[in-house]
Specification:
Chain lengths: 552, 160
């Protein structure tokens, strides 16, 4: 993976010192609350209900074992012993003090990490496929391109005070695993008819109050022009995005109000001026970056091992885990292992200091020293030899990291909600727990099959509820948590927004409601249909009739 | 004490920033709003002293770009430090070949000045009540930069 050179290291170190001085000035009363706000935000620090929250960047979700270990160390030393993997592949700490944040950032810098631009109205962490580099269905490894975008967007002097936050995602695989179409800029690596590599460039996707699926701005842009293209888009947005209303400030609204054609015309004009400048990305630079992401040095005979098949045959629980929590890679005899952070009784995406340290050890022992975070709030050991899976499974089980529930109803996305987030309208973690308790029979979960439940504690939609097969949005009704439900959303290639089922329901009824939805699906489904397929075929009507019988 | 920094040094401020209804003084350096600068172009051409157009992010920059060769100073006004439109204006002015002074006015605070400098702003009227001398330090917060900007056309990722 990418290794900082002296320039990267110096920039990050100097950033820590700059931030340390800012904290000192803030504490000395030389910086007002309002002035300190964007400075701390661009260093990842929010002020939450209970304490500050520090969001640490995990560029495109890739970590080495040393970094994972450091994340564990930070959880132990500065927090209450755990962190939370967010839907943007970052990690959040809920309990640090403001005074300790410069030290945390200095610790992070020692392993080439930071919290830069994880918040604020700037270009955020670029996200991608958690299986990058090993996925069977991938055209190329997207990470070299992500790293180039990271360097271009980090501390971009012109785009630190945009109308609103700005998110870029890159997908390079047949199946989009990064919810790419829900980003301000969505980049799809593709080949044109001459076999040359480039990007389909989409703009204006996003969630929040006004969810919109991105629209294609350019069908194909050569790799060498991708940065000038992005810069042109950002420059138009910076000057024309609305600054009068926070809820209309994202680029999706700029594009919507202006119209895609007019927006494209403006970008075209700007792009023409900057296309042949220093932003040009020569092939040798891409090659240089690619060299940081070599294929894992796998053992060519890995698939000749027989122990794996025997262990699967002997041990149904192991076989079940393999089927549910691992996927084949492009290397014969190696699988990617999802480390489930969705154990019962634990908020989705939470991971403890001990678990992080264990994951770091597993990465070293079994997965070429690498781990990943996913937007579904799990982690991944990207490349594990099949002969090692049984041993790894046993070790993961000891750490409660082997719940065989990836992709099932129990693999919910859930934002921190009212328990931690200052913006929340409703609880989300207790609802996830109630649903989990109701569906604790694994065989039942497997029968239900692939099902994405996504839950947010308010309109900001950090829990991606618009694109959940079942989306749950918390609303506040006279101080109580109620929930609006949508059905049929998807964040993948067939991205779509869920349809509203009906009036909000009470917190204590949520498990019943989900159970009813599942029953309707099991009655209605046809051969091979996933929940979302059935909803798309039947519409929401049969589901609605069951959940709101009085209205029928 | 002066609140003006030019090219990293404290400097005496010779400019008066005129409101649209203020009378134009007999002489001396002045800035006027972009609208007034266009409307009263002829009168202003005869003014004894430097005349700078003063833009905020809502103004049309192209009007100024068309006459850049006649200008020594362009003022960019930041109504709030979080309003980033003028960063793009500065980039576009430098790109158009402007070598004169680009001066930031308004809610100009030291924590934004490093970025302002990178996009090509070289003069800062630091917001009232702030220590301009201390603010100079922030211009050297970083010794390296990643991307191409007005101050450095080649980004770090182009090392070949
Ligand atoms: S969706 Fe709302 S409640 Fe949940 S984390 Fe985001 S802002 Fe907080």
């Amino acid at each position: 993976m990418y290794q900082y050179n002296t320039v990267d290291q110096k920039i990050v170190d100097e950033r820590v010192e700059q931030y340390r001085r800012q904290v000192e000035r803030y504490q000395a009363g030389l910086l007002s609350e309002e002035e300190f706000l964007p400075l701390r935000l661009q260093n990842g620090l929010y002020v939450q209900t209970q304490a500050p929250m520090l969001r640490v960047a995990i560029p495109y979700g890739t970590l080495n074992s040393k970094q994972v270990r450091m994340l564990g160390h930070i959880a132990r030393k500065y927090d209450k012993g755990y962190g939370h993997i967010s839907t943007r592949q970052n990690i959040q700490y809920n309990w640090p003090t403001i005074e300790s944040t410069p030290d945390i950032l200095a610790d992070l810098a020692s392993v080439q990490m930071h919290a830069i631009q994880t918040s604020g109205n700037c270009i955020r962490n670029t996200t991608t496929d958690q299986l990058a580099g090993v996925a069977k269905d991938e055209l190329v490894d997207p990470r070299p391109y992500c790293e180039i975008i990271r360097q271009w967007s980090t501390f971009h002097p012109e785009f630190a005070y945009l109308p609103r936050k700005f998110k870029i995602a890159v997908s390079a695989s047949e199946t989009d695993r990064a919810a790419t179409k829900l980003h301000d800029i969505a980049l799809f690596l593709e080949k044109n008819e001459n076999g040359e590599l480039g990007f389909q460039v989409d703009v204006g996707g996003g969630q929040g109050r006004t969810p919109i699926i991105s629209k294609t701005l350019y069908d194909w842009v050569p790799v060498e022009d991708i940065l000038s293209c992005c810069e042109a888009i950002l420059r138009i947005y910076n000057q024309h995005g609305r600054r009068d209303n926070k809820y209309k400030a994202r680029i999706k609204i700029t594009v919507k109000e202006m119209g895609l054609d007019k927006f494209r015309e403006m970008v075209d004009a700007e792009w023409a001026v900057i296309r042949d400048t220093g932003l040009k990305l020569p092939e040798q630079e891409v090659e240089r970056m690619k060299a940081f992401f070599p294929a894992f040095p796998v053992d060519a005979d890995a698939s000749s091992d027989n122990s794996f098949a025997a262990q699967e045959a002997d041990n149904p629980a192991f076989a079940r885990w393999v089927k549910q929590n691992t996927v084949e890679t492009k290397h014969d005899g190696y699988r990617s292992v999802y480390v489930s952070l969705k154990a019962h009784g634990q908020p989705p995406g939470d991971v403890t200091d001990d678990q992080l340290e264990a994951i770091a050890d597993f990465a070293d022992e079994y997965s070429f020293g690498e781990a990943r975070t996913t937007h579904n709030q799990n982690m991944v050991l990207p490349c594990v030899k099949q002969a090692d899976l049984f041993a790894l499974w046993n070790k993961l089980r000891e750490q409660s990291l082997a719940m065989p529930n990836i992709g099932t109803l129990a693999d919910m996305i859930c934002c921190p909600g009212l328990d931690f987030c200052a913006l929340a309208n409703a609880h989300s973690i207790p609802v996830a727990e109630a649903i989990n308790e109701r569906f604790d029979d694994l065989d039942y979960l497997y029968d239900i099959g692939e099902l994405e439940i996504k839950m947010s504690g308010c309109m900001n939609a950090c829990g991606h509820h618009h694109v959940g097969h079942i989306g749950i949005l918390g609303v506040d009704k006279k101080g109580e948590s109620w929930y609006q439900i949508t059905l049929g959303g998807s964040a993948s290639n067939d991205a779509s927004l869920g349809e509203r089922l009906g009036p909000a329901v009470k917190q204590e009824d949520m498990a019943d409601v989900v159970e009813n939805l599942i029953k309707v699906y099991l009655e209605e489904r046809q051969e091979g249909e996933r929940f979302v397929d059935t909803v798309r075929r039947t519409g929401v009507a049969p589901f609605k009739a069951r959940v709101y019988p009085e209205a029928a | 004490m002066t609140n003006l920094i030019i090219d990293g040094q404290l400097a005496e401020n010779t400019f008066t920033h005129l409101d649209d209804d203020a009378a134009i003084p007999a002489n001396g350096d002045i800035s006027v709003s972009a609208t007034r600068w266009l409307e009263e172009a002829e009168t202003l051409a005869a003014h004894d002293g430097t005349v700078a157009p003063r833009l905020n992010g809502a103004d049309e920059l192209l009007n100024v770009v068309a006459k850049l060769h006649k200008l020594e100073v362009v003022c960019l006004e930041f109504p709030a430090f979080a309003d980033g439109r003028c960063y793009s204006f500065a980039t576009r002015l430098r790109r158009a070949g402007f070598e004169g002074q680009i001066r930031a006015l308004g809610n100009v605070l030291r924590d934004q000045m490093f970025y302002m400098q990178r996009v090509g702003i070289n003069a800062f009227e630091v917001d009232e009540g702030r220590d301009a001398e201390a603010a100079i330090e922030s211009l050297s917060d970083f010794s390296e930069t990643y991307q191409a900007a007005s101050d450095n056309p080649l980004p770090v990722y182009r090392q070949a």
